[in-house]
Amino acid sequence: MVRTGLQWFLTSTGPAASSHLETGAFVRSRPDVTFPDVQIHFLPSVIIDHGQKMGDFHAFQASTGNEFSGTLVMMALRKI
Question: What was the pLDDT predicted at 10?
């Protein structure tokens, strides 16, 4: 991991040059849901030994997660 970090820091290239969370979406699970309650992730990923080893093939991961916490939070953004 140190080698990967140094490669990115010195040359802005290599496996660490991407966040690897390339695509995602928030969607509604049903038409009657007011706010999106499901998050979808799609990313290039090879998981070997819990991420400790680099893979020698191409793969992707697709996952979903329930985003409803039961609490509604409203936030306003403003330009500083």
Answer: 93
- Residues near 8 by Cβ (< 8 Å), separated by ≥ 6? 14, 15, 16, 17
Domains of the chain: which residue ranges?
17-66
Enter the pTM of the model: 0.49
Quickly tell me which residue has 């990115």 as its tokens. 8
Find the helix or strand (DSSP H, E) in which 9 lies.
helix 2-11
Average pLDDT, the chain: 80
> Which among 10, 17, 39, 16 has a CA at the least distance from the CA of 27?
39
Span 8-29, mean pLDDT?
Answer: 82
Task: Let me know how long the chain is.
Answer: 80
